[in-house]
Design brief:
Elements: E1 7-18, E2 23-25, E3 30-31, E4 35-51, E5 56-59, E6 62-63, H1 66-76, E7 87-93, H2 103-118, H3 125-135, E8 147-150, E9 160-162, E10 169-174, H4 185-195, H5 199-218, H6 222-241, H7 252-266, E11 271-274, E12 281-286, H8 287-297, E13 306-310, E14 316-319
Parallel strand pairs: 5-7
Antiparallel strand pairs: 1-4, 1-14, 2-3, 4-7, 4-8, 5-6, 8-9, 10-12, 10-13, 11-12
Bound molecules: adenosine-5'-diphosphate and ligand DP6.
Adenosine-5'-diphosphate binds next to helix 1, strand 7 and helix 2.
């Protein structure tokens, strides 16, 4: 068989239940506050790397523009010592790219793992999480499942670590818009750091929230996990409204989903909402209730806009 020696990796995306929103060091991507995430089985990236005559970068078989290519190949420098060793990177996202559905988290985690394999750098998981953070902050949390804490610390210690919990949860994603967002997460959080009048309040509260969340997870207290996730989400999104030029990632369609979640909750089924830098809504619930909640949602939303996901099983690395 013709073996081309392709280095491959698969990583799950993660959704923050305590949000990362703001860098105190832009270059090193050190956040102002701790964040905590839940990994998704249904949202992932598979990245394949092979030697080539020139550097190339594809997502879902589409050649990426010069700006994206430059960003990615600057990141490759963390692993490649011989610049003459050109590579082709072919990556596949299971979710829409750059639509607030966390493609950057699985995208950079899978790229980090595949580069580590391709260049035989044999780095530890802590080191891979640290390097991945330099590509995209949230990706540092894709190395542990199902719950991961990313600490706001110095360069070496600002990495993902596993959070203990026996909660068996699922997430239902309601896609109200799968188009690329106009303001990237990176730009949006920078606008908030630079001019939101409630930014200090946000990160001070988020750090308090992260400690509470760790304790709720450890105590398997789903009700408080869900309530805290919602209040943390709401405060994060409020920061955008208090910028010099206010903006919002949320739309009328987002609020319609939130209304439905509140109704479902009133009917006795526990579920809670969160949104990232985009209008799509992620609903956290117990795995045992997930199918029933999915069925209720499917009376209002078409099934191709609803994704029911269990927690991610962890990353994989292999050769082809
Ligand atoms: P999202 O909400 O999907 O995470 P972001 O705006 O935060 O969107 O990040 C999108 C960026 O993440 C892309 O512009 C690209 O740089 C990076 N990205 C997405 N998918 C991949 C991938 N498969 N491999 C490498 N980088 C990726
Ligand atoms: C709202 O990790 O995509 O999803 O570090 O600039 O690449 P960069 O940002 P990114 O931001 C994610 C922001 C968020 C919240 C979260 O995932 O914690």
């Amino acid at each position: 068989m013709d073996r081309k020696n392709i280095s491959c990796a698969k990583a799950n995306a993660n959704i923050a239940i305590i949000k990362y929103w703001g860098k105190k060091d832009e270059k090193l991507k050190i956040p102002f506050n701790n964040s905590i995430s839940f990994t998704l089985d249904a949202f992932y990236t598979i990245t394949k790397i092979e030697n080539s005559s020139e550097d190339e970068f594809y997502i879902n078989d589409t050649k990426q523009d010069e700006q994206e290519k430059t960003k990615i190949f600057n990141f490759v420098k963390n692993f490649r010592s011989d610049f003459n060793q050109k590579i082709k990177i072919s990556s596949y996202n299971s979710m829409p790219t750059a639509a607030g559905l966390s493609s950057s988290s699985s995208g950079f985690a899978a790229l980090t793992l595949a580069l580590n394999k391709h260049f035989n750098t044999n780095k530890s998981i802590d080191e891979l999480s640290r390097i991945s953070r330099l590509g995209s902050g949230s990706s540092s949390r894709s190395f542990h499942t199902p719950f991961c804490l990313w600490k706001s610390d110095d360069d070496i210690n600002s990495i993902g670590t596993k959070v203990d919990s026996n909660l068996d949860l699922s997430m239902i994603i309601v896609i109200v818009n799968d188009k690329k967002k106009e303001i990237s997460s990176n730009q949006g959080m920078k606008m908030c750091v630079d001019s939101s009048s409630i930014f200090e309040k946000w990160y001070t509260q988020a750090n308090i929230d992260s400690l509470k969340m760790i304790s709720y997870l450890k105590n398997n207290d789903f009700t408080n996990v869900g309530k805290l996730m919602e209040s943390n989400t709401n405060l994060m999104h409020r920061t955008t409204l208090f910028c010099e030029t206010p903006f919002s990632y949320l739309t009328y369609k987002t609020y319609k989903v939130i209304d439905l979640i509140k109704q479902i909750r009133k009917s006795g089924l526990e579920c809670y909402y969160t949104m990232d830098a985009g209008p799509n809504v992620k609903i956290l619930c117990k795995k045992e209730d997930s199918y029933q909640i999915y069925e209720i949602l499917s009376k209002t939303y078409p099934k191709d806009k609803l994704i029911l996901s269990n927690c991610g099983k962890g990353f994989e690395v292999w050769s082809e």
